[in-house]
TrEMBL record:
This is Response regulator transcription factor. It comes from the Bacteria. The lineage of its organism: Bacteria, Bacillati, Actinomycetota, Actinomycetes, Kitasatosporales. Residues 146-211 form the HTH luxR-type domain. It comes from Streptomyces pseudovenezuelae. Signal peptide: none annotated. The keyword DNA-binding applies.
Amino acid sequence: MSTLPPSSPVRLLLCDDHAVVRAGLRALLSSADGIDVVGEAATGEEALAMAAHLNPDVVLMDLQLDGGMDGVAATRQLTARGRGPRVLVLTMFDTDADITRAIEAGAIGYLLKAEQPEELFSAIRDAASGRGALSAPVADRLLNRLRSPRPALSAREHDILAQLARGLGNREIARALFISEATVKTHLGRIYGKLGVETRAGAVAVAKERRLLP
């Protein structure tokens, strides 16, 4: 990834599945000096295709997208190219799981849609220059996690997580591991807490990102 010369405008590709949001962002960014919106994508697949021929410096990426590819998967593919664009996440979601997945996928920054315009403009310019950018609430979350790291999963929790990844329900997990459903629920609560998620799908997603599953 090359660093953008100071005099060059930042070539920006928007990726958000809501047309109204894209229109609002384009209108907002048109008032910013040194930022040129070169395209708009509604899906992760469109973002990949457009990035390939538009050569943006930065992709402003939403996490929740319609279609088969979400923002995290699109980010991973865009950044895997090595010399591709920087990806700056702009989303409404600030859970630990979302933040972790996006950063581990290669996003250079993570902003919330409640951000002030000048903060957004600055983050886009920073991203183009190779500098990271985090919304204040996101930075606080990351610092809190570093100060109070979650304990590792126990052997039993790993077993339950593996069954969860197979798509089994609580009753099926209980039968497979010869434990009670109540015990399964207790362990699931602990797994959610340690992984910073609130759903079964979230637990599996974070576990895969952290390579906790075979």
